[in-house]
Input
Amino acid sequence: MGERIKKLKKIRIHREGTDTLIFSFFILVAVAVILWRAFDTKIPFWIFIAVFGTVYGIVVNFFRCPIRHFPNDDTENIVVAPADGKVVVVEEVDENEYFHDRRLMVSIFMSLFNVHANWFPVDGKVKSVVHHNGNFHKAWLPKASEENERADVLIETPSGKEVLCRQIAGAVARRIVTYAKDGEDCYIDEHLGFIKFGSRVDVYLPLGTEVCVKMGQTTTGDQTVIAKLH
Output
């Protein structure tokens, strides 16, 4: 019981969800009252409350912000999952915007039911942060990586390796928030940003990197080791 309470204390609501949760609470209550009176039935009001309470619970679940710490002190050459979700791509690709060579790309898709806070995948220094406007294709499609609205965070590790972390908006997600700043030091356990309502995060790694995940595998942000840099 004590362990369960301890875990609950490590979960909070992300600051990106404060306004949304307040606004949606009043909207859902108002809609429930209007429908209950409009139908003029003998359906108990608590049923409307239960239905709309479930919907509100899903929204609250979306904005969860668990406090996490990578379990190992040695993070050198470690690449952690930047997001909760499922691995949808593990392949070599041509990256012609920053590196102009081939890179190993690992992509994680986040559903509406995943935590949507994003973590830095490696320790290092932020070299650049660039936001691109674009389309809103379904996030799991290959073209989403280049054509959708996205935010690119380029990081140089202490050993001189460059890693690109790309936040991608999807068909539902229409807002990308990036906390990373040019020139700042960054660390595993810190939030890189937040994407609202389902999307995807790509990580571009140097060739020769040891991949530690496989297609379809579920990841936990800041906890799952997705790769090891050589």
Q: What stands out?
A: The CA atoms of residues 78 and 228 lie 5 Å apart. Helices lie at 2-9, 18-39, 45-62, 144-147. The longest strand covers residues 85-95. Residues 18-39 form the longest helix (22 residues).
